[in-house]
Specification:
The complex is a heterodimer of chains A (107) and B (121). With 107 residues, chain A is an all-beta fold. Chain A has no helices and 11 strands. Chain A has strands at residues 4-7, 10-13, 19-25, 33-38, 45-49, 53-54, 62-67, 70-75, 85-90, 97-98, 102-106. In chain A, the strands form 2 sheets. In chain A, strands 2, 4, 5, 6, 9, 10 and 11 form a 7-stranded mixed β-sheet that branches. A 4-stranded antiparallel β-sheet of chain A has the order 1-3-8-7, with no helix packed on it. The radius of gyration of chain B is 14 Å and the shape is globular. The relative contact order of chain B is 0.31. The chains are: A mainly beta (107), B mainly beta (121). Chain A binds chain B through residues 1, 34, 36, 38, 43-46, 49-50, 53, 55, 85, 87, 89, 91, 94-101, and chain B through 35, 37, 44-47, 50, 59, 61-62, 95, 97, 99, 104-109, 111-114.
Amino acid sequence: DIQMTQSPSTLSASVGDRVTITCRASQSISDWLAWYQQKPGKAPKLLIYKASTLESGVPSRFSGSGSGTEFTLTISSLQPDDFADYYCHQYTSSVYTFGQGTKLEIK
Amino acid sequence: EVQLVQSGAEVKKPGESLRISCKASGYSFTTYWIAWVRQMPGKGLEWVGIVYPGDSETKYSPSFQGQVTISADRSITAAYLQWRSLRASDTAIYYCARQEYRGGTRGFDYWGQGALVTVSS
């Protein structure tokens, strides 16, 4: 199975900060990677797919990059609504996997 | 409007059986896979498996293979996750989500609201 290693597990930041979350795959997944945001008590929400394509309706302060084994999710200027959990997800193989998650909290 | 509406919370005893459902509407059911994702209390997301309602093809995570059964009934546009014998460690929220069948480029673009399964003696 392809393992996804996401870091950091917790990130403390302030409104207006630029933050980056990293996801590393144990083998190449080309660009078959998505990012999701999850708020407490809610289902995950798709933010980015194919590593860098912004889902419709998602603010442009979110961006994704990478290919192969290294991927990043960047939030250019944190807003109060962005404090949540974030997960990467590879969907290239017959067995999908998620990263362990990053909790983005207010500093 | 695309909707995935899941069945309600369940409280079961160890050893009991259970089937939870995910009712799809607002799109062509046989043009998308339906996946199941587990989230144990306070933990991250885990992919359980996926079913294609067009021909009932299924794929499972090795961690869940043999422990659960995923199925779909295209006549009523519903997908299911089933256990024959529940364990306390099955306690979690289970989400269904859809993925486009051809290409599947967008990952899981719509999710159900989640179903809490509690297994306790």
